[in-house]
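name: query_chain
kind: protein
chains: 1
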Amino acid sequence: MVTLLCFYFADTEVIALDPWSELLLIGKGFIAPDFFATEYLVEALWQTVSFALLGVLIALVCGAPLALVYHKPYIAAMCAFIRSIHEIFWALLFLQIFGLSPLTGILAIALPYGATFARVFSDILQQAPTTTLQTLPYRTDRISRYFYGRLAHVLVPVRAYVRYRFECALRSSAVLGFVGMPTLGFYLETAFRQGHYHQGAALLILFITLIGTIPYWCRVKALPIYFVLAIWALPELPNIDGVLIWRFLSQDILPPMFQNQVFQSQALQSDVFSQFFDWISKLLTEQALPGIIATLLLAFAALGLSHIFAVIGSAISDKRLSGGVIAGGNRLLLLILRSVPEYILAFVFMLLLGPSMLPAILALAIHNGALIAYLTIRHVDNMAVSAHFIHRIDGYGYEVMPAIYPNMMALLFYRFEVILRETAILGMLGIATLGFYIDSNFAEIRFNGALVLMCVTALVNILVDILSRRILYSKDKSQLGCAH
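structure:
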């Protein structure tokens, strides 16, 4: 009912004059992709991998120790705030300090991912059995007790989650190209925006292949070589002016009425705080409030459609229901759809349907629904059925669906935080979510307003996360944490 209500109020009008001709052109591009049209293609692919590798490495170095003290309220609150702001917003912020530097892309990935590692590793460690700790000698040091008594039990899920998070980092690295970073997304946006669909299709196929072949080329033994090559192949760091950084941190991000007061060392005027109240009230009522409403409308509509997509996708992917050939083909389709970042899907749908909420809803629903169906179907493969199982829709609905549905709903609620974060950044495509107003403030060099709206975005994400956890609480945190 909530989803239908949000669909009713959401702007889902198809504005494009002739979407079918545009779809035909895109289809022709995928039939005959041009892999040699993009200049510096190999460099863009490697930069995408490099940013993801180094970002995840720094995130692990920061997040793993924080997981040990995550039970402290101020640590948990700090991590919740950091991970609630999307990587692309961190990139926009770091752009003002470091410019188009590799530091901007790497830190934009490392910061929220480190906070996410801290939370998920803490959840996984809490599930570790304590039997080994009881068998260790009395005077065993704390480091040994940690490594042999706790970490050894959960090393497999930790490694699995790091691999999954690296896959997410590759998508984030590609999306950073939309703000000017020299990754694959930069060339993707240029190709699709200019109508060069043969070139864009080739880039998208290469990116999906890169994601799909991670188990084959991302081996633990090869990681040290990859890290050395990633550092060696990074673009040259530009000169960073410390004066400009200080100006940004001490003046540009302050509200307008406080900037001159700080730098001129004048006594605060009596009406400064009233001016600040008027400024913050106008910002919250004219930008934050309508942005929150649009963001929630979009997120709930996408959540409901993701649920439908996940139910259908997981059913078709079950070999006992649809057969081996159809199930295998659908699993390949799910791999492709979950590999393409939501931002790129929304960009393509916007070319077809015009600038409304509909492209964003479809992009979020397809990507998240495919991911939930993919995670669900792995549970289905290991599930035994009775000897009287009927290989039809009624047998599936009677025996399989009731067993997997609670886990599917838990995954859906856990993905809602991600949907909300992605909804905000889709505002950069012109949809009036919080991300639209944040991007507008950055474009108009109003960094103070952008910072306030980023804080609002983080608070909304934190509140939704708390609410979703209370609505649907699962004991198996180590498994469901992988959905983040």
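note: Confidence is low (pLDDT under 50) at residues 262-267, 475-480.
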